[in-house]
């Protein structure tokens, strides 16, 4: 990569990303108030958190990671039918970042991108190999979507929004999963697995696996997110930042490589429908807190994100009110 974009040999700080215990996925009473407060605080400070005791069975997580790793271990000729540079095609196996496959500099990543929800619409498109891939992804998709929807309801509780504020179009754009694979890199100081970016969607649930690589920009420093067995990394997308009028951060993050170990991660993205109207929630707007963002259709934002990936400081800046 160009000198100014290389990660170099700087060791990231290990400022602890908050870990929230969801108490088996169903906190109640005093536990609920504590969990809600922790989620809101993490969103305001970091835009990231990790959740444990989220209610997804360990065997579901392990089986999904197993078939994901097996997919990338298959011979090239068995993966090749899924390879495409057509951004509209799903499932799609690609390298680097979307739209960057033919550029002189590529990112150190292979990615299998899948449309996953509603499952009945897409299951027939998923890879048949390795064996049980479809079955594992079906169960995993439903479980992870459930975690995301629970978190959105807890955020509503913390911000005093109607419990179902994110239901319908704001979270109804389906669920897309990116299975990312980073092979060992001879010199990690020269490249990135994924460039620094903010997710354009509403909320993302990441199964990080056992190998370090995720970094979050916090107070102008890159901090590493330590893998926790069985935990999910949760980050808030730019639509959540906009809807909460800047209260919940969408933090820039990236993936770095390493010399010794392959790394596989599974990211599940919950997004609005493309024609969904996005704007700050009226309940969060008053004279002291005017709307920071204009209203727009999600498809406008997503198009801007794709155009500027790898280059944007923060795509949402283009959607801010001129007077804010």
Automatic annotation (TrEMBL):
Official protein name in the record: 2'-deoxymugineic-acid 2'-dioxygenase-like isoform X2
A molecular function (GO) term: metal ion binding
Membership in a protein family: Belongs to the iron/ascorbate-dependent oxidoreductase family.
Keyword vocabulary terms for this entry: Iron, Metal-binding, Oxidoreductase
InterPro entries: DIOX_N (IPR026992), IPNS-like_FE2OG_OXY (IPR044861), IPNS-like_sf (IPR027443), Oxoglu/Fe-dep_dioxygenase_dom (IPR005123), Plant_2OG-oxidoreductases (IPR050295)
Keyword Cell division (UniProt): no
Organism: Ananas comosus (Pineapple)
Keyword Iron in annotation: yes
Signal peptide segment: none
């Amino acid at each position: 990569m160009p000198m100014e974009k290389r990660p170099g040999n700087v060791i990231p700080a290990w400022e602890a990303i908050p870990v929230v215990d969801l108490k088996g996925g169903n906190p109640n009473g005093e536990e609920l108030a504590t969990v809600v407060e922790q989620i809101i605080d993490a969103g305001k400070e970091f835009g990231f958190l990790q959740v444990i005791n989220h209610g997804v069975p360990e065997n579901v997580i392990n089986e999904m990671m197993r078939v994901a790793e097996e997919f990338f271990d298959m011979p090239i000729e068995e993966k090749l039918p899924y390879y495409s540079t057509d951004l509209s095609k799903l499932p799609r196996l690609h390298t680097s970042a979307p739209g960057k496959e033919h550029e002189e500099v590529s990112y150190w990543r292979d990615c299998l991108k899948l449309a996953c929800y509603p499952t009945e619409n897409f299951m027939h498109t998923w890879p048949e190999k390795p064996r049980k891939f479809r079955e594992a992804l079906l169960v995993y998709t439903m479980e992870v979507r459930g975690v995301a929807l629970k978190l959105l309801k807890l955020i509503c509780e913390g911000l005093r929004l109607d419990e179902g504020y994110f239901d319908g179009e704001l979270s109804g754009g389906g669920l897309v999963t990116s299975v990312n694979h980073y092979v060992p890199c001879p010199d990690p100081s020269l490249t990135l697995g994924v460039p620094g970016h903010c997710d354009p969607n509403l909320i993302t649930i990441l199964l990080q696996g056992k190998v370090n690589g995720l970094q979050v920009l916090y107070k102008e420093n890159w901090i590493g997110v330590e893998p926790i067995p069985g935990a999910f990394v949760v980050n808030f997308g730019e639509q959540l930042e906009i809807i909460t009028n800047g209260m919940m951060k969408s933090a820039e993050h990236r993936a770095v490589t390493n010399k010794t170990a392959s790394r596989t991660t599974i990211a599940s993205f919950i997004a609005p429908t493309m024609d969904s109207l996005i704007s700050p929630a009226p309940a969060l707007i008053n004279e002291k807190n005017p709307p920071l963002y204009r209203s727009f259709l999600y498809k406008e934002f997503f198009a801007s994100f794709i155009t500027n990936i790898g280059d944007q400081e923060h795509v949402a800046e283009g959607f801010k009110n001129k007077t804010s």
